[in-house]
Amino acid sequence: MWRTVVEGVTGSMAYIVDGRWNLVACNAEFEALFPRGRPPSNIMRWVLLDGEARGFALTNWAEDWAPLACPTLGRAVADRPDDAELAELAADVRRDPVAGPLYEATAHAQAVALDGVVRPIRHAVKGAGWVTAATANPLIEIEARFMMLRFHAGAQPPELPLPLSTRAPLP
To answer: Where would I find the H helices in 24-65?
Structure first.
């Protein structure tokens, strides 16, 4: 069902990953983000270790993207110390000369909730802009995460509406 939902999303990039950030499903808009037109099999590995992510797609990688990803991976490893796949991913990140020092410095920091996070990006088709993230956990039993990334073209981040919690109550 969720694969159908993700593939049916239009106007935003959408994907589902499992608890280890393995890609489960994605839509065509997400595929178009990548210069080769193919998303990576593991999103966290791509964000932290792939040269295309660090040097092309994820603008200001060390300042804007790695500080989000490192604590998120660190929290997952701490929560599931017996998970060999997560441990291997964290070990690969630690060994990386670029990501390793950032991971060691931030892995134990508080992970940031991604809802409403705005980050700079270079889309393979649409060019430079920003993404605003929205997340959900539709399948708790496999720790799935649904991500939707709304692309906004331009040099300045988009203005966001007020969070629902700050709006006036409905009559």
So the answer is: 28-31, 43-49, 51-52
Q: How far apart are CA 16 and CA 101, in angstroms?
A: 28
Q: Would you give the DSSP letter of residue 61?
A: I
Measured in degrees and rounded to the nearest 5, phi and psi for residue 152 equal -130, 120
**How many Å apart are CA 98 and CA 106, to the nearest integer?**
13
Which tokens sit at 145? Answer: 């995460």
Q: Are 89 and 44 in contact (CB under 8 A)?
A: yes
Beta-ladder partners of 127: 123
Strand partners, 131: 119, 151
Question: Phi and psi for 7 in degrees, rounded to 5?
Answer: -65, -25
Span 139-156, pLDDT tens digits: 665 678 899 999 999 888
Distance CA 29, CA 19 (A): 22
